[in-house]
Amino acid sequence: MEDRLQMADGLVPQKIVSVHLQDHALKALEDQPPNKQAQILPQSPKPSAESKPEPDVMEHVGRDDPKVLGAQPIPGKGGASGSEPAEEGDRGVGSVEHCPLHLSSCHECLELENSTIESVMFASAENIPDLPYDHSGSSEDVADDIRLEREGRRVNITGKAPNILFYVGSAPQEALDRFQEVRSVLADCVDTDSYTLYHLSRESALRDPWSDNCLLLVIATQEAIPEDLSQKFMAYLSQGGKVLGLCSSFTFAGFQMTSKSALKETVQNLVFSKADQTQVKLSVLSSGDVFEEDPGERLSLGKLKGHLENEDQDRLIVQVPFGTHGGEAVLCQAHLELPPSSSVVQAREDFDLLKSSNARRYEVLRDILTTLGLNCDIRQVPALTPLHLLPAAEEIWDPLMWWLGRHVDPEGVIKSSKVSLKFLSSYTSEIEITPSALPVVTDVEAFSSENFNLDIYRQNLQTERLGKVILFAEVTPTTMNLLEGLMFEIPQEMGLIAIAVRQTQGKGRGANAWLSPLGCALSTLLISIPLRSQLGQRIPFVQHLMSLAVVEAVRSIPEYQDINLRVKWPNDIYYSDLMKLGGVLVNSTLLGETFYILIGCGFNVSNSNPTICINDLITEYNKQHRTELKPLRTDSLIARTVTVLEKLIDTFQDKGPNGILPLYYKYWVHSGQRVRLGSLEGPEVWLVGLDDSGFLQVQQEDGEVMTVHPDGNSFDMLRNLIVPKHQ
């Protein structure tokens, strides 16, 4: 301000906030007569907890906030403050020529300085600590906001991403840890591009006008809420605010909490009634507190509610409307914010129960957030990125480039029925990327990725032929389509593999979609198998070998042998017999005397939610056995899986099924498992193993062993097994 800052009444400036005066808004003010300005700035009564005053412009900017520049008049200059109507003859904002802010040498700016600024309507506080809100918009927005607030509804007045604020207690370090914990789970439920998630400290809650731009207040602390802070929260509710209490001491409206020590930090069965009145049953970690109505109170509650499946049907979730402006709170005494891997969860049995309910935990959270006015729709599909052609070994690069030069068309393109690959030395943003036309960058030196380390992949790949040439993409439609145009031509010693960080059109069995979040190991591997070979005569075994390779890739690492990763017939990777964390999809084409096979594989490595991943198993193992096994990476596990697969194929070709079945049975989940044939009412049989072709063998009650196939209609391949007809 070049020592030109003047303030009335001897006030000392505490903070200077950058202000951008938008041209179009200033022009709108300029065109208005001075008395119109007075109408925009009415005198406001003192706010109360029960009613919201008629707001003026300064209230939106933070008139009571000492950290936001207000509209105090400069002594001797004439004008109007933010709390008094302007006299018609006063020289105000509407009577000045405005321009963008310049240096002090600018004549127009000196003129502006010498006049009274009646109100700062468009201020930005984006990068200011302890001010987790933002005020911007247009003059039309402000007029609409005033009208809507007079109709008794809270609105977002800024046009910027509305805030979700988290109050998590007063202890500095504990509050920060708790904030990160709770923020993480809500960030998985809502689109963080649409909402901004902030920590709300006690000081900021008492001092700053946070409620103007707060769409949801999350209270997640078990410490007692101080009276002055409770009054702030209740005032926010009375203005139409929304509150989510997560194992918090915050309560109101005739509710009290009763502590039951027998329930404290134990896993319980919860019945949750959703907004559409359907029910979800899940296992939850109880805080130990339950909700009870005060004697004599008759409360009108919302549709959301949750009670335990115990004799008392203890209430753990209640939806409580408040006030006349649409305020409401959902109060919860189940730890929906804690992951199953939390340090609070000690017993492995509790981890299993909570992890099995993890997807339903997110379902409940999303229903609560949607009821409170948030959008929990699936995020936008990420933009496609170029492919990179990478060698796993330096010596393969020159032969690869020579082969490629002989097979691309004059424009550098190789086409297949599903995708065209255009090979380029470098990529610029002007080059279009579509699901059917993808650029492939051949400059290895220019390659870098936060999610895939080529050196780590190389160190873990110990193969003679598989996985030697990599097509890598950060985001691609599906890896299953990338190799189609290359698979019949490229020399087999240049084993092709497509690897992606994210897929937008991942595929599972049949028409099933395979979700591909960050942290999932995604690849499609090309292998060729002679028709007249052990494996060529038993192609169904390929999917079993790939599933087994994933499990063995982890459990063959020293000290990781007891990580409870298993195979489930015919193509799944499981945690114990409880939860799926990966799958395999095989497409084979017989050309002459050779099977050309694309093996698509995806398994969860570091993406814990909404189901389970390998690093969850490692974390839980460390907790149970007091070990310090390190989490694993997707790039190293893909390379290790390909290495194990090549060894399994070689063993199978040499010894047939008996060469690999002992290892397969060591890890499969079906030992002694019972299933029914044909339907839920069909005869019960026992799974005993695989036949010579890779299909299931079952034993009937009379001791007879027979081969069965899936019926082709069930999502779970072990449902409705049928006995195939023999010609």
Automatic annotation (TrEMBL):
Keyword presence, Ligase: yes
Alphabetical GO biological process terms: post-translational protein modification; response to biotin
GO terms under cellular component: chromatin; cytosol; nuclear lamina; nuclear matrix
Domain BPL/LPL catalytic: 455-653
Basic and acidic residues bias locations: 49-67
Chain segments carrying region Disordered: 30-95
Organism whose genome encodes this protein: Ailuropoda melanoleuca (Giant panda)
Protein's name in the database: Holocarboxylase synthetase
Keywords: Ligase
The family this protein is said to belong to: Belongs to the biotin--protein ligase family.
Taxonomic lineage: Eukaryota, Metazoa, Chordata, Craniata, Vertebrata
